[in-house]
Amino acid sequence: MPSRLLARLRRARPTRRRVVAGSTVVVLLAALVGWAVWPESPPYSTTDSMITVRSGPDGAQPVELDTRFYLPDGASATRPVPAVLLAHGFGGTKRSVEDDAEDLAGLGYAVLTYTARGFGRSGGEIHLDHPDYEVRDAARLLDWLAERPDIRKDAAGDPRVGVVGGSYGGGLALLLAAQDQRVDAIVPMITWNDLARSFLPESTGREPADGVFKKGWAGIFFGSGSGTGGLGGLGGLGAPGAAPGGDSGNDGNEDSGGDGGPGAGQDPVLGAVPGAAPGGTPADPACGRFAADVCAAYLRIATTGRGDPAAVELLRRSSPAGVLDRIKAPTLLIQGAADTLFPLAEADANARGIAAGGTPVRVAWFTGGHDGGEGPQTDQDRLRFLMAQWLEHYVKGSGETPSGSFTWSRIAGFDALDRGLVATGFSVTDYPGVGGTAAESIPVAGPAQRIANPPAGNPAAISALPFGGGFSSLLDGVAGDLPGQHARFESAPLDRAVDVVGSPTVTLRAASPTGEAVLFVKLYDVDPNGPAALSNGLVAPIRLTGLPADVATATPVRVTLPAIVRRIEAGHRLRIVVATSDQGYATPVEPATYTVALAGPATEAVPGMPAGAALTGAEVSLPTVVGEPIATPAVAWRWALVGLVAAIVLGLVVVVAVLRRRHRRHDTSVHPEYADTPLVVRDLRKEYADGFVAVSRIDFEVHRGQVVGLLGPNGAGKTTTLRVLMGLTQPTTGEIHVFGHRLVPGSPVLSRIGALVEGPGFLPHLSGLENLRAYWRATGRPWADAHFEEALEIAGLGDSIHRKTKKYSHGMRQRLAIAQAMLGLPELLVLDEPTDGLDPPQIAEMRRVLRRYATDGRAVLVSSHLLAEVEQTCTHAVVVHKGQIVAAGRVEEIVGESPSTQFDVSDVDAARAVLDRLAGVRVLPETNGALVVDTNGTARSEVVAELVRAGVGVDRVMPRRRLEDAFLALVGENSRGSGDR
């Protein structure tokens, strides 16, 4: 055994051949893998730089901004391009939006991204989009764009520019457009209208100073700006609603771009250093990089849980609400339904304020937001299309004017392939606002109920938890609404489904021994077979003052709940919940007990409600909008399946109807002059909607006994002519007559035509014979009229006729298709490239078949690029070039018009050089190396003499008269046609 093993090792010992062979294989595999994974170079270049801008109240305070500039390839002073200023979300950097910058640069825009002051490597402090700081910073960046010669200008110093941003960046876009009229269009996303109302909301219409502090979101914002954490790319275009850490690999306080090492205030290992200002100077740990006034306002509100006039004024200073009438840039507002930070009402207020000044506005809602991310892919695709369309028209200056339609979406289910969520989009012509275009009033009822406010707001219900709005339905019965801290009022089961699009409303009454109460009103969708769902964790906080101790004497208050998009199915109930606490909001520290009731008269008990005290009732008003569905791949497939079933049923009905009424159908449009002519084409023209003219003027006839070849270079118009002839497309002008009948869609005379156009199409699970039989049954013609034996003989498939067609080769399918076209022995046979896929013996047989077929009064029209086959098969030819007929007639007549001579010479290249110098003599191209010359009247002896004088030996001279020569003479050697369709 050891000796055998040793022998094997010797045989397996590496030799030079084996090493070289193995190395070659390794190198080739490595090259193949490298080629496969090597990224394509992007169609743009990028430049990172620190740009110093001057801003502040006096416009003179310098601050460095970390920027990245994307410039499309080919942009120059002679070919300037429009620009987009792309702003990131709160806590992000320029890296937060790099994917979106790359997309926009790929669309031909110069894109400037930057890290806002107070974040990442940029200097300065955070002023919350202050007009004198962040907004003026952005205006100075527009100046920088205006100085570049490769940026398109509307005027000196006025760049052609759009501004795009989400959340913090969206607020910047609105404020910049109001402050700087050079902005040509804006796309603000998931952003605010009134920052004071966003962080101090109150749903009965009271001012923000009386609002309920949104402590959860405010704490996250303040923490991300003070160096204690980051929101990642929160609200960025590419990732609206990204959770912490979602900044494309960046932690929100550090720019990891290639700018030469860690930025200011960063540790090379740990990254961002909490509490460090740019340049490494220690900052106030309580405020981080926030400006002092912003920090002080937050600390006051967070400590007391209440707003004050100074804090409200500071937040409104950074709000678009007061300057909407100054925005003249066309505005596309995108807002998310899954957003407890900036709900849909914020975009609604912005839309109404901007539109009031006559500025074009479009609104789009989607299923994502700060709590729901980007939403399903169908939503992302819709929003990117809307944005690209908006910028193309208003910034690029091309494309049609976008409509002002309102689009929205709702979750429709899961994708069957990847199990991801699928959103269905809808559209309506005019934006209806959060009030909808109509309303459904649903009665709800329940007894007056006492509820307790816990001391210090602990424990608190969990519903409007930042980033977790969707968790509320999972927490039902666990921590969503705590026992003793909430009252419930319910409806009867709905007798029909209701599509809610907008802000529901309900009227309540409340009593408190302290005269004041903070309450949270919620609308649940109660599934009888599942949990109660609170749409995206959205709640309506209210602060009521001047309350009586007895609820019976309380003044009704109308509560406007956050706008939602939800389908409430038939059989579900509505539940109004009034709670005293919520994890996301600040509530009174002192414990108290309130009484709440619906504002309405006593009513009958609702089925399923507990017995007890008299019930009060009210109506929940649900706004609705009826829109047209927006097609998506998922919807398209669903409707395709429905359509297929419907088409089968409709097809059966139509076949039966046709069979019953066939004897009553009469064609009276017979042209007497063409009654005995199989095909007459007169003045045919086909022009497409985009202006492309495939056929400009075609005029020919096909008579009985003729085999007519339709010839022409690629793009000449052959296939278009055949498509019109078979009714696959309609001509722009002109007429086609078949045996005197004008050809129109559904014309009975089509039954007298057999055709193979645009390739065969068979059911793959059926055999060849079964396909022929199925085809004939579908025609509705008598079984006796089918000529299966002749067709099978033509096909020549032998036993393969019984095999499934999915196993056929291309040539076999082609032969079966020709047999199908001849199955009824039609009087006019139309074939497009019939010899495609056939071998030489089959081509020869096809010649004989076509000649035999054009007997007994039948005719054949055949389109082919094999000129030799046409010459040997056809009796007549029609030559088409650039959509027009350049020759028509008998084949021998067309050939006779193009005399040529073949010269067998000793040196073809030298002979070609000699003949190219002879006036009037043209050397025709050949594939077999022979020299074929069109002498154009020059004597052959003179041509031979010139060759001999030049030292070229001439072995043989013979005349050449072929269809190919005539064809080349008619259409030119290098003709490419007009691009047939």
TrEMBL record:
It comes from the Bacteria. Keywords: ATP-binding, Hydrolase, Membrane, Nucleotide-binding, Transmembrane, Transmembrane helix, Transport. Residues 268-277 have a biased composition (Low complexity). Residues 238-277 are annotated as: Disordered. Residues 679-907 form the ABC transporter domain. One of its GO terms (molecular function) is ATP binding. Residues 238-249 have a biased composition (Gly residues). The chain crosses the membrane at residues 20-38, 636-659. Belongs to the ABC transporter superfamily. This is ABC transporter ATP-binding protein. It comes from Plantactinospora endophytica. The lineage of its organism: Bacteria, Bacillati, Actinomycetota, Actinomycetes, Micromonosporales.
